[in-house]
């Protein structure tokens, strides 16, 4: 597709030959809006890639991935990027700010870009890329410096989520934090993959936000209309009201009990008001305000319940393909063969490898009929110095027959779970099948396999 002054290339990368009408309309809408926002910039090239799970818009240092109508955004300068950012920021589901571990400075342009996203703070995530180029001690300092820098430009009470990692295909330069990087990358992928799941709910939240903004605009416009003189001195009064706009905001907040976050940007509002005749503004229509309040108070709750009901009847929607394809499956998935997953694909019971050591401890605890009591087991398990809540969970997992006592296999399992927890891994809510002691398995061949391994 060729346009005057700009080159726009559209590629359909979805598996299907056809393209749904709503996605095509969304694509054409974005093209039109970009052309309007960029004005007469003749040095812009766009690449629009259509995927099964979304749309990606790419130009020079400007990338947008959007799930059907929205999703992911990073941006740098080559035109009036603040206005473009603001437009996309209101429509995307996730905004990702990318930093390199060795280059943390926030330039003036980047700072202005972040400020343009004001009001979309819940969508912002931060990625600290190339974190493998520094060691653990340096990474701690870099992370602290990044959080300090972000605190000056992102004014939110909540701490912004920062993902650490190395998001490219090159080998890690420092592998000491490999497990951390893998966990962080999986968290980021899960966050992006889950965006379609709550798409309808986010649209409802956008509706609520726009309804509140419409109410605020009505109060502002009607107040300015009321303050204008009927005949003389209109221009002078207009300039005075524009200068007093911050004070007017404060008065309206108190009078109508409105949150400051619902008000539009005061500087931008002052600039826009310069071009309007206040005497032609409409008066406040109380009945319309009451309808909006009624909608926010009652009908929104009904819509939310309907959305939840519809989502429960449908399979969860997920972003798929690309980096998300098979990232959690196979031997290279996060945590595969580690912690509680160790021994999942082994023929023998993994606990049996250290059972001879656990048996020595077991027989010093005076077993009765091949089992030790909870009191005796507690004394030994307390030596791990783990909290009682954790030890209680381990006991529940290890006591497979739930008789309040442990046989030699159950005791060995408890010691194995303690070892896993001390190594920093999480415990499961239910015991995986590969950790169930052979004598407690329903599979009749389990005992034979275990005895063969012991021999």
UniProtKB/TrEMBL annotation:
GO CC, one annotated term: recycling endosome membrane
Q: Which GO terms describe its molecular function?
A: calcium ion binding
All residue ranges annotated as the EH domain in the record: 354-442
The protein's matches in SUPFAM superfamilies, at most eight in alphabetical order, are given as: EF-hand, P-loop containing nucleoside triphosphate hydrolases
GO BP term (any one): endosomal transport
Keyword Calcium on entry: yes
**Region of interest (Disordered), residue spans:** 433-455
Protein name per UniProt: EH-domain containing 4
């Amino acid at each position: 597709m060729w346009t005057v002054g700009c080159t726009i290339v559209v590629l359909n990368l979805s598996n299907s030959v056809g393209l749904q009408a709503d996605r095509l309309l969304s694509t054409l809408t974005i093209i039109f809006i970009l052309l309007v926002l960029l004005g007469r910039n003749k040095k812009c090239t766009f690449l629009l890639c259509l995927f099964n799970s979304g749309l990606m818009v790419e130009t020079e240092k400007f990338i947008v991935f959007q799930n059907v109508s929205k999703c992911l955004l990073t941006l740098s300068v080559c035109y009036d990027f603040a206005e473009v950012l603001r437009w996309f920021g209101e429509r995307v589901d996730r905004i990702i700010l990318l930093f390199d571990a060795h280059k943390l400075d926030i330039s003036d342009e980047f700072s202005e870009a972040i400020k343009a996203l004001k009001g979309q703070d819940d969508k912002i995530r931060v990625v600290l890329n190339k974190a493998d180029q520094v060691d653990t001690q340096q990474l701690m300092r870099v992370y602290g410096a990044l959080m300090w820098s972000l605190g000056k430009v992102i004014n939110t009470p909540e701490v912004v989520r920062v993902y650490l990692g190395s998001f490219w295909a090159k080998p890690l330069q420092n592998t000491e934090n490999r497990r951390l990087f893998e966990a962080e990358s999986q968290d980021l992928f899960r966050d992006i993959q889950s965006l379609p799941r709550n798409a309808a709910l986010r649209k409802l939240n956008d509706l609520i936000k726009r309804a509140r903004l419409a109410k605020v605009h009505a109060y502002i416009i009607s107040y300015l209309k009321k303050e204008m003189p009927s005949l003389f001195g209109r221009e002078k009064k207009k300039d005075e009201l524009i200068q007093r706009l911050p004070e007017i905001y404060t008065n309206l907040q108190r009078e109508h009990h409105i949150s400051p976050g619902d008000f539009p940007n005061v500087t931008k509002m002052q600039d826009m008001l310069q071009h309007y005749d206040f005497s032609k503004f409409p008066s406040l229509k109380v009945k319309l305000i009451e309808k909006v309040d009624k909608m926010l108070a009652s009908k929104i709750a009904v819509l939310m319940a309907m959305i939840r009901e519809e989502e429960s009847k449908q399979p969860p929607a997920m972003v798929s393909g690309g980096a998300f394809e098979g990232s959690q499956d196979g031997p290279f998935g996060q945590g595969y063969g580690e912690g509680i997953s160790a021994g999942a694909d082994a023929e023998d019971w993994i606990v049996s490898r250290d059972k001879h050591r656990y048996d020595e401890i077991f027989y010093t605890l005076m077993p009765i009929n091949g089992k030790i009591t909870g009191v005796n087991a507690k004394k030994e398990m307390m030596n791990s110095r783990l909290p009682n809540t954790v030890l209680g969970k381990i006991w529940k997992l290890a006591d497979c027959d739930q008789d309040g006592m442990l046989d030699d296999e159950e005791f060995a399992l408890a010691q194995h779970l303690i070892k896993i927890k001390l190594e920093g891994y999480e415990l499961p809510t239910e015991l995986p099948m590969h950790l169930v002691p052979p004598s407690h398995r329903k599979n009749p061949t389990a005992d034979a396999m275990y005895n063969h391994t012991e021999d």
